[in-house]
Amino acid sequence: MNKLMGFYELRDLAIPTIPWKEYKPGIELSSNYLWTIRSAVVRGNDLNLPRLIGKSANEAITFANNLYKRLDGDGLVIYYPYFIAHKSGTLNVYLDKVVIEAIKDDLWNLVTNQDLDLSMTFDRQDRIISSYGNKEFLDENEINQLLKYAKRIFSIYRDEILDGNTILLEWSFASSCNINKEPIDEPYLVFYEVRTTK
């Protein structure tokens, strides 16, 4: 499953996810929000694709229009309201274990800078096998939420996992925000990418 399929897959999973929509030229974005623009390609390398994060409606529309032209029908441009990530990470669901990696603030700190605040590995009974980093970084409620969705992912993707694949999800505990990037609600868990890896 690549990034493009993952976007569609997210819509069908019973997990909290971003309210993304497909962008096409002519779509208007509200100036009451900051926006995120992302892309996915039909084929080829779909890692480190162009993206715009937390920008005004005008900036987002300009970027999305240019990206739409560049993809020229070979991919998808999506948009959704920007959110502030307080903690982010990956959730890897294996046949015999679940690995949670977490970083302060945005996931790009983990993906781009290779920073890591906490890595925890759990067996199928949610017992900790190993832990690295700041064990206090995620509280018990946050860990339990991630493990709950790991179980759901395991049941949904059971056949793929039994075939030797791993399901990788990207997540954040985040808050919606206003155009000044000030949080306007309590943090919530959101997943924004799912993919199959070997």
Topology:
Layout: H1 3-12, E1 21-22, E2 35-41, E3 52-55, H2 57-71, E4 75-81, E5 83-93, E6 97-104, H3 108-111, E7 118-123, E8 128-133, H4 140-156, H5 158-162, E9 166-176, E10 188-197
Antiparallel strand pairs: 1-4, 2-3, 2-4, 5-6, 5-9, 6-7, 7-8, 9-10
| Shape estimate | globular
CATH homologous superfamily (4th level) name of the largest domain: ATP-grasp fold, B domain
Quaternary structure type: single chain
Give me the CATH architecture of the largest domain, please.
2-Layer Sandwich
Proportion in β-strands? 35-45%
- Average pLDDT for all residues: 90
Residue share in helices?
25-40%
**What's the SSE pattern?**
HEEEHEEEHEEHHEE
CATH class of the largest domain: Alpha Beta
Counting helices, strands and paired strands, the structural category is alpha+beta
Total helix count? 5
**What is the C-alpha radius of gyration, as a whole number of Å?**
17 Å
Q: Taking strands numbered 1, 2, ... along the chain, how are they ordered across the largest sheet?
A: 8-7-6-5-9-10
Major sheet: 6 strands, antiparallel
Detail the poorly predicted runs: none
Structure description:
By secondary structure, the chain is an alpha+beta fold. Helix content is 26%, strand content 36%. The protein folds into two domains: 18-81; 84-197, ATP-grasp fold, B domain (D-amino Acid Aminotransferase, Chain A, domain 1, 2-Layer Sandwich), CATH 3.30.470. It starts with a helix and ends with a strand. The mean pLDDT is 90.
